[in-house]
Design brief:
355 residues; alpha/beta; Rossmann fold; six-stranded mixed sheet; 12 helices
């Protein structure tokens, strides 16, 4: 059985985050040289990645298939490797790159999306094409399109640009989540997340708030200013926003959170304020990270096929480079509602895919 990155981290005595940074040669979050040496030695002992990569590379060479060097650029306000959503996307990319015999040239994550930082990454690491993750500003995207011929965007929110994308429709995800709360009798539904309309935001790709608004209008439910908790997508910031809103007397019977990290913070705030979930407030979110099944109560959420998004983005980029296509392809993967305890409906393992 092939070794995994978790095996390497365990043998080296480091976190999964640290092992990933070393294996992916992350130039932004540098690891102590002694620690990096432990990870490299552990990977060699377990025959992780190099042997699997070499087998696939030899297969590529013998069949005369081209080998591409692929770069990954992630723009995120959070530490990307500690974010389960992005970690799974990166894992999918890494797995498909290894299986297909291509080369992962670099993986860079930036909280600063300035052109200088992005330009430095490109100068130091020439690539055949690049996969973009995270939320993009117009300036960053313009620079990338001008300087990188082959681009694929992978994630939850579409960029709606003229290049390839592998996404899961976040607008429809949000509408589905809100409708689920309404179907369970909730009428005062709050929103927790980045409350910036896609048309006016500096970020080109954020549609969960728009989906919330659209669903509320269609359902004829009121959208009051105090129901909108505009906050960064982190557990701590969502907790603080909900704690503050409840202190100020916020009344609601349902809550839609833009991601599971926000929802976990919201659950803590509701518990502190003696609000019972789902009896007083039903909660639903988007992502279905591992922690969602271990929160108390267990979190109802929209399952996003994160690893598959990463895998398909590599395949689409390789096809784009090899065939030099003149037209873009947009691949939208399906999602489904994971019904657990927090929404007030009977827990179910049924999967109904929505596209």
């Amino acid at each position: 059985m092939a070794s995994t990155l978790k095996d390497v981290a365990r043998l080296a005595g480091v976190s999964l985050t640290t092992a990933s940074r070393v294996i992916n040669n992350d130039h932004i979050h540098r690891v102590n040289p002694k620690t990096a040496k432990k990870v490299i030695e552990a990977a060699a002992e377990l025959e992780y990645a190099p042997n699997e990569f070499a087998r696939n590379l030899r297969k590529k060479q013998s069949s005369h298939d081209p080998v591409f060097t692929i770069g990954v650029l992630l723009t995120s306000a959070n530490d990307s490797y500690d974010d389960s959503f992005f970690y799974d996307l990166l894992l999918g990319i890494q797995t498909e790159v290894a299986n297909s015999g291509h080369i992962l040239g670099f993986t860079h994550s930036f909280s600063d999306t300035s052109q200088t930082a992005v330009q430095q990454a490109l100068l130091n690491n020439p690539v055949s094409g690049m996969i973009l993750l995270g939320r993009m500003s117009a300036d960053t995207l313009h620079f990338l399109r001008k300087n990188v011929k082959h681009l694929v965007y992978a994630g939850l929110n579409s960029l709606n640009q003229q290049f390839d994308e592998v996404v899961c429709d976040s607008f429809l995800c949000a509408k589905t989540a809100v409708r689920h709360l309404a179907a369970n009798g909730r009428k005062q539904i709050s929103f927790v997340g980045t409350a910036a309309s896609s048309g006016s935001s500096m970020l080109l790709n954020e549609y969960r708030y728009d989906g919330y608004l659209d669903a509320m209008r269609e359902l004829g439910l009121p959208v009051c200013k105090n129901l909108i908790l505009d906050t960064p997508l982190s557990t701590e910031m969502a907790f603080q926003a909900m704690d503050r809103a409840l202190e100020e007397g916020l009344q609601m019977d349902g809550c839609f959170c833009a991601n599971d990290n926000c929802a976990i913070g919201v659950l803590k705030a509701l518990h502190m304020h003696k609000k019972k979930v789902p009896q007083d407030v039903a909660v639903i979110s988007i992502d279905d990270i591992d922690m969602a099944a271990y929160s108390r109560p267990m979190l109802s959420t929209i399952h996003i096929p994160r690893q598959e998004i990463g895998e398909y983005s590599v395949r689409l980029l390789a096809d784009q480079i090899q065939n030099n296509r003149k037209y873009p392809i947009r691949m939208s993967l399906p999602f489904y509602v994971v019904v657990r305890e927090s929404c007030g409906e009977k827990v179910s393992k049924k999967k109904t895919f929505i596209l």
